[in-house]
Each structure stands twice: as structure tokens, then as C-alpha cells.
């Protein structure tokens, strides 16, 4: 039982990060129909940026803030310089553009930063908290807590603010949104900026646990993507449930079956979900129109 | 006359053969022949992807997985099963085609992003298996590949491999051009334009997509086998996600659906790292930038753009 509980804790911790990445995917996908493969690299920028800024003597919270700001700027540039000029391109072309962006960001990161693994000190100590025979690291609570705050914040932003509603309107029908006077370009830039911020914040809080390197973004992106897809592409709640589900399955897979194939779990889940429920858990039925 | 030549079915083959004969004449050292052989081999893999992506319009972000299967077949066959390398090459291609056949049915029902992510997941799983089953595959360090011997002749040296890979590519290009002109090729083009319209005219959309997927997998496995035999060493990197992306980039940068485009794209992505050896740490950044720039500003790819430009000029 203690082992089971331990796996649940570690599954929920990484699952919360996957959920955040998936939420970033969902936000951009809803606003622009683009699947942003560079989403995982925002996580890396958040983590690596904080590590290197903190190393220059800047206080950790300020370093994290600057790193998150940096990721937002990268997100806005990505939209302005790569997505905006390719408007109307096919899905495959858009996939390749964001994959190119992801490769480019990693390439620049290994020059600007380095190729080593880095870590951050845990925010509130390393003393494990005992719960029912298992233990939780205080940093795990930070991760899950941050994720919760971001989920609620994003929900309130989308449902209660005018800009948030404009974003939802754009997602629902771009032409209609334009007709009622919503500036689509600004809304799309906003989606990229917010989604970069969410990724970078996830990167800052998870780095003390998982470490970070210039190329950690790939796996975060792929697993976050799996999470978004399991939940049903474009559903914020689905993204959260999908993220936690993939985190838990991965933890159980590593704990009970084989830790070598831990990374395969997410992809097996993607393949199974796509075969049996192509629209994901929360996706509706789709009808092809001619 | 030029217009007719540009439209003739086998003129790409002629251009290709001409380049293949010319390269050894101007190559200053055997190093350049080796790079050229790599170009031919990757062009072969890209050709398979051209049939899948360019003809049938179906994306695969896990194509390097099939390349890995072919490469490891020629490494594992002789080392663990005592098979002849050539037989292993053929068996590897057959195995790759069989796996494509089995996973292709369910995967190809998906479209757009979903298809991209399913093929990506498939490729990552293959790479992970090659990485983890150290007892058979040698793990992350990979394994060495026994030299190819044909009737007592040990095949080695850049020059021999240059001609072997060039021959393989010519055969591959010939087959690809024939497939394009065959009923299957026409069916693929039809379903590329509109699946519903193709199905309406009696095309078995699912079966035709599967055919393209299997052919693409066999091409990739052959290329992988040749690559492993030439290098004498293979690592799980051959099947990596990054490699799959490079293959897709070759097809798109060269020109989607163009046989010569696959070769030009392969040349571009194989020669680029060689040209950047002094600036190795910037290689990844340059690659990413190039993919973005091409996708945004030259979405049709190099060869079709030049071809259309020439056609406009002469007609």
C-alpha cells in the first residue's frame, strides 16, 4: 500500500507538469489550430533561464520572473516571426514550422547555456513529509499547488474577463470573432504569450525534482501532447485529466513493470487512445463535411 | 523541347544518372565520394517518404523507425543468427514492410495532427526498444556490422559503396516513377486531393494508403540496411525522433512529391553538417532555422519551384 501511495504521489507530480504543458498546447490549438511542438521548450527556458540567472547572484524569485518573461518573449516572437507569416499553411507545414522552431530553440540554448544537466534548490527544503507510509517531497507540493493555481487562474481568465472571452470566441469561430470586432492577431499573440508563461512556470517549479537540460523540452512536449490528445484535443479540462492520467500510468509502469520503458507508456497510451477513441476522452463525435 | 523534357516521365532518372556519373569525376578525394554515397542512401529513404507524403499526402513523423529496423536487421542477422548480410537486408526490408502493414491499418485511419502524433509515437517506441534491449542490440552504444562479402569479395571503400548506393537509388527512383504513373499512383494522388471524392469514384482509400505506407517502410529499411553495411556500425540514433524529422525535412525542402526533390533535400541535409563542421555547436540552430525558413517562404520545395519557373520561361 505504501508503495502504491508513493507511486501515486510521484505520478501526480509529473502528471501536473504534463497537464500544464497540455494546457499550453490546448490554449494555442484552440486559438489558432496550430499544434506547437515548441511548447516543451518553454519549460526548458523557464528552468534553464532561472538556473543561469540565479548563478549570477540574482535572488531566485526574481531570476524565475525574468526567465518566465524571457519565455513569453520567445513565445511572442515565435508567433510573430514564424506562425503569422505562414497563415493558411497546411497542418503538416505548421507542424514542421513549430518543430523547426523547437530545434532552433534547443540549438540556441546549447550555445547560450550549455549541454549539462542543472538543478535548482528545492523552494522549501528537502525534508520529506510522511503520509500513510509513503513520503512526499515539499517540492512536489509546490508543483501540484502551482498547477492548481494556474488551472484556476486560467479558468477565471477565460470565463470572467473580456479578453479571455474574446479568446474563447476566436477559438469557437475566427470569422465571427473578427466580425464582432475582436483583433484576432492580438488574441493569437496573447495565446502564445500565456501558453509560454504557463510552460515556463512549470519549468521553474519542476526543475528541483527532474533537473533540466537544453533538450528536456522534447519529452515534455511529446508527453504533454499525449495528455492533450488523451483528454481530447482542445478541451482544457481534458488536458488536465489527460496529464494526470499519463503521469500516473507512467509512474505505475515504472514501478510495477519496467523503468526502462517508462517513456514508452505515454506513446502506448496515445496509440491505444487514437485507435479506440480517436477524439479522446472528452472529445465529441466528429462528422466529416465535404 | 525543354518543356517536353521537363514533363517527360523518366527525365528525372536521366538527370540523376548524369549527376551520379559526374560526381566521381570532380570529387577531389574519397571523402567526398563517401558523403555522396550518404546522400544517395538518405535520398532512398526520403523517396519512400515521398511516396507516402508526396503521392498519398499522409505524414509520418516516425519514419526513421523503419530505417532503424532495416539497419539493425543487417547487424543482428549475421551476428546472432548467422545469416548472410544480403539475406538479412532483404529480411529486414520484409520485416519492416510487415510491421508497417500491421500498424498501418489502424494508424492510417487517423488524419492530420492525429496521424502525425501516432506515427511519431510508433517511431519513438521503436527507438526505445533498440535503445533498451542491450542483449540483442548493444544498447545505446549500438553494435558493429559485419562487412558485406559477395562471392568472396569483401565490399569496402568509398568508391564501391558510392556505386552500390547510386545503383540502389536509381532502382528506387525508377520504381517510384513507375508507381506514380500506375493505377495505384493515380489512386494515391486522387485520395491526396480529396479522400471523399476518391472513395466516391471507387478507390479503396484505406487499402491504398496502406500500400503507400508499406512501400515507404520498405524503402526506408533498405536505406537503413545499406547505411549500416557501409558504416560498419549502427546506433539507436538511426531510429531517433530527430532523424525522422530530418527525413521529413528532406522531402519537404526538396519538394513534396518530386523524385528529384527527395535527392536534392537529402543532399541539402547531408552536406549541411559536413559544411558546418567548424561551427558544430551551431548545427542544430541552423537546421531548425532552415526548416522554418523553407516551410514559410518556399513551401513547395526547391525542385518544383525551379521546375515551374523553367516551365514558365520556356512556354
Structure description:
The complex is a heterodimer of chains A (290) and B (315). Chain A has 11 helices and 2 strands; from the N terminus they run ααααββααααααα. Chain A has 290 residues and is mostly helical. In chain A, a hairpin with a 2-residue loop joins strand 1 and strand 2 (134-136). In chain A, helix 5 crosses helix 6, helix 9 (217-231) packs parallel to helix 11 and helix 10 crosses helix 11 (262-276). Chain A is globular, with a radius of gyration of 19 Å. The termini of chain A are far apart. With 315 residues, chain B is mainly α. Chain B has 15 helices and 4 strands. Chain B has helices spanning 2-7, 11-26, 30-55, 64-81, 85-108, 112-132, 134-137, 158-181, 183-193, 195-200, 205-231, 241-254, 259-275, 283-297, 302-314, and strands at 143-144, 149-150, 153-154, 233-234. In chain B, the strands form 2 sheets. In chain B, strands 1-4 form a two-stranded antiparallel ribbon. In chain B, strand 2 (149-150) and strand 3 form a beta hairpin. In chain B, helix 2 packs antiparallel against helix 8 (158-181), helix 3 packs across helix 12 (241-254) and helix 4 (64-81) packs parallel to helix 6 (112-132). The longest helix of chain B has 27 residues, at 205-231. Chain B starts with a helix and ends with a helix. Chain A binds chain B through residues 35, 82, 85-86, 89, 91-93, 95-97, 99-108, 110-111, 218, 222, 225-226, 229, 233, 260-261, 263-264, 266-268, 270-271, 274-275, 278, 288, 290, and chain B through 53, 59, 61, 106-107, 109-110, 112-114, 116-118, 120-122, 124-125, 128, 132, 194, 196, 241-242, 245, 248-249, 252, 281-292, 295-297, 299.
Amino acid at each position: 500500500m505504501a508503495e502504491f501511495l508513493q507511486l501515486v504521489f510521484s505520478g501526480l507530480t509529473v502528471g501536473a507538469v504534463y497537464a500544464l504543458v497540455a494546457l499550453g498546447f490546448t490554449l494555442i490549438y484552440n486559438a489558432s489550430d496550430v499544434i506547437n511542438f515548441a511548447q516543451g521548450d518553454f519549460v526548458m527556458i523557464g528552468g534553464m533561464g532561472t538556473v543561469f540567472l540565479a548563478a549570477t547572484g540574482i535572488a531566485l524569485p526574481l531570476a524565475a520572473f525574468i526567465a518566465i518573461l524571457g519565455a513569453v518573449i520567445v513565445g511572442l516572437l515565435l508567433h510573430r516571426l514564424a506562425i503569422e507569416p505562414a497563415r493558411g499553411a497546411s497542418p503538416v507545414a505548421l507542424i514542421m514550422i513549430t518543430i523547426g522552431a523547437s530545434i532552433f530553440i534547443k540549438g540556441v540554448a546549447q550555445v547560450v547555456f550549455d549541454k549539462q544537466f542543472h538543478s535548482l534548490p528545492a523552494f522549501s527544503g528537502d525534508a520529506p513529509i510522511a503520509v500513510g507510509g509513503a513520503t512526499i517531497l515539499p517540492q512536489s507540493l509546490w508543483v501540484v499547488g502551482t498547477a492548481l493555481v494556474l488551472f484556476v487562474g486560467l479558468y477565471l481568465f477565460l470565463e470572467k474577463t473580456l479578453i479571455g472571452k474574446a479568446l474563447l470566441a476566436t477559438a469557437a469561430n475566427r470569422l465571427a470573432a473578427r466580425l464582432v470586432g475582436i483583433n484576432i492577431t492580438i488574441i493569437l499573440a496573447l495565446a502564445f504569450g500565456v501558453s509560454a508563461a504557463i510552460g515556463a512556470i512549470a519549468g521553474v517549479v519542476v526543475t528541483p525534482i527532474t533537473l533540466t537540460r537544453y533538450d528536456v523540452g522534447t519529452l515534455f512536449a511529446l508527453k504533454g501532447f499525449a495528455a492533450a490528445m488523451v483528454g481530447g484535443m482542445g478541451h482544457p479540462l481534458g488536458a488536465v485529466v489527460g496529464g494526470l492520467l499519463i503521469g500516473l500510468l507512467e509512474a505505475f509502469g515504472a514501478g510495477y513493470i519496467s523503468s526502462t520503458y517508462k517513456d514508452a507508456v505515454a506513446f502506448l497510451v496515445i496509440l491505444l487512445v487514437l485507435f479506440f477513441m480517436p477524439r479522446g476522452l472528452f472529445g465529441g463525435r466528429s462528422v466529416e463535411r465535404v | 523541347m525543354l518543356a517536353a523534357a521537363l514533363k517527360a516521365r523518366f527525365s528525372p532518372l536521366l538527370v540523376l544518372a548524369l549527376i551520379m556519373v559526374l560526381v566521381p569525376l570532380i570529387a577531389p578525394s574519397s571523402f567526398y565520394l563517401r558523403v555522396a554515397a550518404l546522400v544517395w542512401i538518405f535520398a532512398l529513404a526520403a523517396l519512400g517518404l515521398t511516396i507516402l507524403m508526396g503521392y498519398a499526402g499522409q505524414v509520418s513523423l516516425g519514419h526513421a523507425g523503419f530505417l532503424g529496423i532495416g539497419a539493425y536487421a543487417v547487424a543482428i542477422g549475421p551476428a546472432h543468427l548467422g545469416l548472410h548480410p544480403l539475406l538479412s537486408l532483404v529480411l529486414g526490408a520484409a520485416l519492416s514492410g510487415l510491421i508497417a502493414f500491421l500498424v498501418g491499418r489502424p494508424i492510417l485511419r487517423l488524419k492530420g495532427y492525429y496521424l502525425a502524433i501516432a506515427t511519431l509515437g510508433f517511431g519513438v517506441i521503436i527507438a526505445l526498444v533498440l535503445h533498451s534491449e542491450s542483449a540483442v542490440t548493444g544498447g545505446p552504444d549500438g553494435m558493429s556490422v559485419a562487412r558485406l562479402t559477395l562471392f568472396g569479395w569483401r565490399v569496402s571503400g568509398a568508391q564501391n559503396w558510392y556505386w552500390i548506393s547510386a545503383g540502389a537509388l536509381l532502382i528506387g527512383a525508377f520504381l517510384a516513377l513507375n508507381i506514380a504513373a500506375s493505377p495505384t499512383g493515380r489512386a494515391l494522388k486522387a485520395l491526396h486531393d480529396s479522400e471523399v471524392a476518391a472513395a466516391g469514384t471507387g478507390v479503396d482509400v484505406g487499402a491504398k494508403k496502406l500500400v503507400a505506407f508499406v512501400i515507404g517502410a520498405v524503402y526506408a529499411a533498405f536505406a537503413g540496411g545499406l547505411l549500416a553495411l557501409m558504416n560498419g556500425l549502427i546506433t539507436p540514433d538511426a531510429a531517433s525522433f530527430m532523424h525522422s524529422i530530418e527525413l521529413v525535412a528532406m522531402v519537404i525542402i526538396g519538394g513534396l512529391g518530386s523524385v528529384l526533390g527527395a535527392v536534392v533535400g537529402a543532399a541539402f541535409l547531408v552536406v549541411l553538417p559536413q559544411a558546418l563542421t567548424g561551427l558544430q555547436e551551431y548545427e542544430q540552430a541552423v537546421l531548425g532555422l532552415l526548416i522554418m525558413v523553407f516551410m514559410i517562404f518556399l513551401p513547395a520545395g526547391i525542385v518544383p519551384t525551379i521546375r515551374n519557373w523553367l516551365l514558365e520561361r520556356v512556354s
